[in-house]
Amino acid sequence: MRGPDVPWYLAVAAFLFATGALGVLLRRSPLIVLLSLEIMLNGANLALIAFSRLHGESSGQIFALAVMAVAASEVVVGLGLIVAIARKRLDLDVDKLSILRG
Amino acid sequence: MIVAAWICLVAPLAAALLITLLGTGVSRRGAAYLATTSVLGSFAAAAVVFAKLWGESPDARSHPSTVWEWLTAGSFHVGLRILVDPLSVFMMLVVSGVGFLIVAYSIGYMDGDDEERRYFAYMALFVFSMLLLVQAGNLVILLAGWGLVGLCSYLLIGFWHERPAAIAAAKKAFVMNAIGDATMALAFFLLIQHRQTLNFPDAFAVGPGHGWLVNLVALGLLGGAVAKSAQLPLQTWLPDAMEGPTPVSALIHAATMVTAGVYLIVRTHAVFEQAPRVQELAAGLGAGTLLMAGLIALVQTDIKRVIAYSTMSQIGYMFLGAGLGAYANAEFHLMTHAFFKALLFMAAGLVIHALAGEQDIRKMSGIGRLMPMTRLAFLIGSLALVGLPPFAGFFSKDSIIAAAMDRGWYGYVLFAAALAGTFLTGVYAFRLFFIVFPGELSPFVQEHLMRGSHAAGMEGAHGEDDASRPHGHDVHEHTGEGPLSMTAPVLILAVLSVIGGWIQFAPLWHPVSDWLEPVARPLAEPTNTQEALASLFAFLLGLAGIAVAWMVYGTRRWRVPKYAFAQRMLEHKFYFDEAYDYAFYRPAVALAQGLGRWIEGPFIGGGIREIARAFRDAGLSTSRLQTGLVRTYALAIAASLAVITIVFVAVR
User: Fold this and answer.
1) Which of A49, B25, B477, B574 has the fewest CB atoms in 10 Å of its CB?
2) Contact at CB, B630 and A33, closer than 8 angstroms
3) Is residue B626 assigned to a domain?
4) Which of B626, B631, B634 sits opposite A101 (nearest CB)?
5) Confidence at A102, pLDDT banded by 50, 70, 90
C-alpha cells in the first residue's frame, strides 16, 4: 500500500468534519451554513473512502458516491431556499428566521 | 302450499320496498293501489294455504319451512323459519283480509295527503310485519315481527309528524312496548338456556321440575303480551295512539297488532299451562282491564278514544278467554272483534272525514241524518260490540264468559267481571251512538255538511272545509259519505259483523274450535247449560246497558248522575298516567339531573377538564424548547450525536 496510512486520512476527515460543524454552529449566514454542511459531508466521505481502502472492498466508495449525489441535490434545494429568502428581501441571517418558535 | 305461505308473507314487503325505492317514480294513487293489491295478494295466498290445509287430516296440519339458518351458536340454531298450522293460517286470514279492507279504505281517507306514499309504504310494511309475527316458526322470528309491528305502530301513530301530540303519543307507545319486548326477550333467553331451541313447539316443553323457570318464562311472555295488547298495567299508550290516522287505528290499534298478545298466549299456551298461576293472572288482568276500560269509556269525549277504550275492553275479554284456557274462543273473538271494531273505526273515520278532522262527539250530534249509511254501519258495529244476537259479538263473547263458569270461585269472580263489562259495553257503545248520530243537527255539523250534501246534491261537498283539516290537504270531492273506496270496505265489514259470528255457535256447531284444536287444546269446555246461562245474562245485561244509554242520552229523560269524584277519576283514566309520571318519569328525571349535577359535573367532567389542563400545561412547557433558532437545533443534534457516540463506545 502506498501513500499515508489510514489514520492520517481519518485525522484529515475529522478535521474537515469539525471545521464544518463549527461553521454550521457558529456562522449566521445561511450560505456559509450550507457551505459548512458540505464540508462536513466531505469529511464523512473521506472517512468512508479511507475505511473502504482499509478493508479492501469497494462498498464504502460507492457509498461516498451516493453521498455526493445527495449532497448535490441538497445544495440545489438549499440554494433555492436562500434565493427565495433573498427575493423576499429578508435578512440572510438564520437567527432571524425563527417563526417556528414554540 | 308452503310457497303460497311465503308469497303471502313477502308480497306486502315487496310493495313496501317498491314504493320506497321508486320514490316519486310512482304516483300517489299508484302507491295506494300497489299497497292494496299486495295485501289482496296476501289474502289470496292465505286463502290458498287455508284451502290446502283444510284438505289434510287434522293431525297433519303443521308444516314448518326454513329458508336458511342465519344464526348458529354451538348446538343452538335459528333459521328464517315459518310455521303453517291452523292457528297461523287463521291469523293470516284475519290479518290479510281485514288488512286489505282497511288499506283499501285508506285510499279514500288519505287521498290528497302530502305524504301518501310514505303512508302506504308503512301500511304495507305493517301487514308484512304482522304476517311475519303470526307465521313465525320460532320465537326469534316472532320477536322480529313483534318488534317490526311496534316500529310500524310508532311510525304510523306519528305519521302526522308536525303535530307534537302525535310525536309524543308515538314515543309513548314505543316505550311502553319496549318494556314488554324486554321481558319477552328475557323469557327467550331463559328458554334458550334451558331448551337450546326456540322452534315451535319444542321450545315449550320445559318439563316438570322447573317450576320457577316456567313461571318466569310465562311471566316474561305475559309482559310482552300485556304491553302489546294494552292490558293492565301497560295500557296507557293505546288511547294516545289514536293520534294516528283513523285507518291506522282501525288496522293496528284495533284489528290486528293489539291482538298479537292474545295470539302470543295461544301460541305459547304450553308454557302457560305449566304455569297455571301466571295463566290465571292473565285472565285476571284481562278482567280488570275490561272493567277499567269500560268505565273510562263512559266519560271520554273523543270519538276515537271511546272506541280505543272499547278495544282495550274487548281485548280484556280475549285475555280472559286465553287465560282460562278457552283458546279457540279467544281467537274466535279476536276475529269477530277485528270485523266489528274495524267497522266502528272506519265508520267513525267517515264521520271524521266528513267533518274535516273533528273528533269531539259533542260537536257531532245529529250527523246520522246526513250520513244514513254510516249510521247504519255504526249501529251494526255497536250491536256487534255489545253482543246482541244475531250479531257477531254475541257468538264469540258469550263463549268466553261461559268458559269462566268452569273454574271454581275464581272463575265466578271473572264471570261477574265479564258480565259487568257487558253492561258497561252496552252503556258506552250506545252513549257514543246516541250522542253522535240521532237528534238535532248541531251548528258545527250544519256548517260543515249541509252545504255539501244538500245544496250540491250528489256531487258532494267541495272541500273548502277540507283545507282546514289538520293534515295539509288538496281540495278534493266526495259525495255525502265518502268515496266508494271508503264506503265499500265499511259495507263489507258491516255484513261480516252481522254474519261473521255465525260460523260458530257453541252448543250446536263449532268449526273454529275444531280447526284450532290440534294446535291448542282447550282447558275449559263449558257445558251447554253454562253457555245458555252466560248468553242469557250477557244478553240481558247488554240490553240493560243499551236501555240506560237510551234513557240518558237518547231520550234525555234521565240525567247523567253527578259524582264529582268518580267523574274526575274516570276523566283522568284512574290516574295511571299521573301515577307513572310520579313513579317513574319524575324520579328518573330527578335522578338524571342529580347525577348530572353531582357526578357528571364535578367528577366526570371535572376529571376530563383536569386531564386536558395537565396536557396543555405539559405542551406549553415543552414548546419552550422550540426556540426557532436553527443553530440551536444543530447544536442539539451535534451534542446528541456526541453523547450517542460516547455511549456506544463506552458500552462496547
Assistant:
1) B25
2) yes
3) yes
4) B626
5) low
CATH architecture of A6-87: Orthogonal Bundle (1.10)
For helices B28-54 and B2-22, what crossing angle results, to 10°?
A: 170
Within 8 A by CB and 6+ apart from B250, the residues are B102, B105, B341, B342, B345, B346, B349
pLDDT digits (tens, 9 = 90+) for A50-70: 999 888 888 889 999 999 999
Residues B545 and B609 occupy one common structural domain? no
Residue finishing a domain among B561, B593, B622: B561
Are B509 and B258 in contact by the 8 Å Cβ rule? The answer is no
Q: Give backbone dihedrals phi and psi of B207, rounded to 5 degrees, phi first.
A: 85, 160
Both B441 and B544 in one domain: the answer is: yes
Contacts of B638 in chain A (CB under 8 A): 21, 25
pLDDT at B648: 94
Q: What interface predicted TM-score (ipTM) does this complex get?
A: 0.79
pLDDT at B354: 81
Q: Would you call B628 helix, strand, or coil by DSSP?
A: coil
Name chain A contacts of B628, Cβ cutoff 8 Å. Answer: 97-102
| Chain B touched by A21 (CB under 8 Å) | yes
B241 inside domain = no
Cβ distance B630 to A94 less than 8 Å, yes or no, reads: yes
* H or E, element range at B83: strand B76-84
The pTM of the whole model exceeds 0.80: no
Last residue of a domain, one of B536, B561, B586: B561
Task: Please indicate whether, in this complex, the C-beta atoms of B623 and A94 are within 8 angstroms of each other.
Answer: no
The residues of B whose Cβ lies within 8 A of any Cβ of A are 622-631, 634-635, 638
For residues B465 and B584, state if they share a domain.
no
- Residue B39 belongs to some domain of the structure: no
Residue spans per domain, chain A: 6-87
Length of chain B: 652
Q: In B137-245, where does DSSP find H-type helix?
A: 139-157, 164-195, 211-228, 237-240
Do B426 and B540 lie in one domain? The reply is yes
Helix, strand, or coil (residue A64):
helix
* B374 is a domain residue: yes
A1: distance to nearest CA of chain B, Å?
A: 29
| B524 in the same domain as B406 | yes
Quote the domain boundaries for residue B621.
Answer: 577-651
**A33 in contact with chain B, both atoms CB, cutoff 8 A:** yes
| Torsion B439-B444-B450-B456 (CA) sign | negative
HEC secondary structure over B322-387: HHHCCHHHHHHHHHHHHHHHHHHHHHHHHHHHHCCCCCEHHHCCCHHHCCHHHHHHHHHHHHHHHC
C-alpha cell at B515: 280447526
- Who among B624, B625, B631 is closest to A25 (CB)? B631
Q: Residue A100 and residue B622: Cβ atoms within 8 Å?
A: no
Tell me how many domains chain B contains. 2
